[in-house]
Amino acid sequence: MDTVGSLRGFIAKTTSANHEEFFARRCVWVNGPVIVGAGPSGLAVAAGLKERGVPFIVLERANCIASLWQTRTYNRLKLHLPKQFCQLPKFPFPDHVPEYPSKDQFINYLESYANHFDIQPQFNESVQSAEYDETCGLWRIKTDQSANHREVEYICRWIVVATGENAEKVVPKFFGFHEFGGDIIHACDYKSGENYRGKKVLVVGCGNSGMEVSLDLCNYDSTPYLCVRSSVHVLPKEVLGKSTYELAALLLKWVSLRTVDKILLFLASWSLGNTDKYGLKRPEVGPLELKNTEGKTPVLDLGTFGKIKSGQIKVVPGIKRFARGKVAFVNGEILEIDSVVLATGYRSNVPSWLKESEFFSKNGFPKAPFPNGWKGNAGLYAAGFTRRGLSGASEDAIRVAEDIGKIWKEETKQQKPPAACHRRCISQF
Ligand SMILES: Cc1cc2nc3c(=O)[nH]c(=O)nc-3n(C[C@H](O)[C@H](O)[C@H](O)COP(=O)(O)OP(=O)(O)OC[C@H]3O[C@@H](n4cnc5c(N)ncnc54)[C@H](O)[C@@H]3O)c2cc1C
Ligand SMILES: NC(=O)C1=CN([C@@H]2O[C@H](COP(=O)(O)OP(=O)(O)OC[C@H]3O[C@@H](n4cnc5c(N)ncnc54)[C@H](OP(=O)(O)O)[C@@H]3O)[C@@H](O)[C@H]2O)C=CC1
Ligand SMILES: O=C(O)C(=O)Cc1c[nH]c2ccccc12
């Protein structure tokens, strides 16, 4: 353990460059944590570490920060929740930004955030695997640099997983899918209805994405069919000019979650009427309880329900099978369809690269429920897996940065390694 001892000393004390490169750029020692992902969660952790003087690197597979927002969202997207619930720690939205920022305004905000805290992620670098090496008490993180096809191994004391709840698209398998022949995309590749004018489009999935894609299609003269295979809670975005989300957050300070759910359902029925009648059956469990137990986000209605009521959007049940230019549904109906948009959701990609099973479960989320899913063993941290959107990500980030900052401070106080120590250590790997 001589190696570990001296490495730890080096980690604790070195104040020079963030990392040094070894073995012809293959093996890199990182002095401080490695943050995986430069979305809002990764940026928020990075900001907290900057404030505490902890050096770090951020590895990002895409060529920009917040790639979900910049490259995998539709044009008309705005935040659903008021801006005060979506801002990251220590840097509020400017006053001129409206209550519900547009996608571009949110991206600008995140760019300013990264600039303000001087966060410079390493882009085009995808983490392929990360494993804790018991023999030396350090993490080994292997990446693929897409620009030069080079593989790099980072060695570090701490790893912060910030790859998000929406890292990969979910594409279900359907019987006869290959026979269909029309174009099929996932909602993450949908930009606008421009390419769908005059077409019959089947939108599969009635989460916030499917609902909004259907609405967008109406504005481009196409005919959307919305596939609702089970149930969904549709809530008004605002009640009497006040954000429903804000109202719920306020009520939760005074009454139980179940009572808030009852109030939300009353308000939904008062404002939207009976959604069941139009094929949007409500789940047995209330909207907040369902979000907490299954992570299923309620839909905040932006006008889709009105289009369903008026018949511009037709609700169809679950899919039985696809055939050439046709789709058969479980109720026996068969429709001619030109194109399909799969708004079937996303999943975490953590199980594909993190070799660890104590803290993360098989679905790529921490096992411990909120607010305890941010710290694992041996220097493993996570931010942004709370199923509580950006506000949950911020809460995680504050805790992670505080914890690493504390350890960093204690260790830098105690140890002073010999100047040439790290080279000697690394060469032993
Ligand atoms: C369409 C849409 C709208 C949303 N709107 C809202 C909203 O209004 N309010 C709200 O609170 N939440 C919203 N959300 C939830 C969303 O999860 C958060 O807004 C936010 O993006 C989460 O940030 P994150 O950093 O945790 O994850 P992400 O934003 O997904 O960032 C993760 C980053 O990690 C990178 N990455 C992934 N795997 C690797 C790897 N192996 N190696 C290197 N890098 C990797 C990705 O490229 C990505 O840049 C929305 C989600 C979607 C899909
Ligand atoms: N402006 C905003 O704030 C927005 C926020 N978001 C957020 O992004 C996240 C992802 O949302 P979203 O992309 O809508 O994904 P969701 O996971 O919320 O919804 C996926 C939908 O696809 C359905 N589905 C999955 N498989 C099938 C299948 N085989 N056949 C039929 N239906 C199927 C699901 O139905 P079932 O329930 O039966 O499984 C569900 O309705 C959420 O947290 C959401 O809140 C998204 C858009 C806008
Ligand atoms: O995206 C999520 O999962 C969130 O928790 C944030 C969010 C976005 N749109 C919403 C609608 C209702 C409740 C939460 C959200």
TrEMBL record:
InterPro entries: Auxin_biosynth/cation_transpt (IPR050982), FAD/NAD-bd_sf (IPR036188), Flavin_mOase-like (IPR020946). It catalyses: indole-3-pyruvate + NADPH + O2 + H(+) = (indol-3-yl)acetate + CO2 + NADP(+) + H2O. Its EC number is 1.-.-.-. Pfam families: FMO-like (PF00743). GO terms for biological process: auxin biosynthetic process. Pathway: Plant hormone metabolism; auxin biosynthesis. Keywords: Auxin biosynthesis, FAD, Flavoprotein, Monooxygenase, NADP, Oxidoreductase. GO terms for molecular function: flavin adenine dinucleotide binding; indole-3-pyruvate monooxygenase activity; N,N-dimethylaniline monooxygenase activity; NADP binding. Transmembrane segments: none annotated. Its cofactor is FAD. It is an enzyme of class 1 (oxidoreductase). It comes from the Eukaryota. Coiled coil: none annotated. PANTHER family: FLAVIN-BINDING MONOOXYGENASE-LIKE PROTEIN (AFU_ORTHOLOGUE AFUA_4G09220), INDOLE-3-PYRUVATE MONOOXYGENASE YUCCA7-RELATED. Belongs to the FMO family. This is Flavin-containing monooxygenase. It comes from Beta vulgaris subsp. vulgaris.
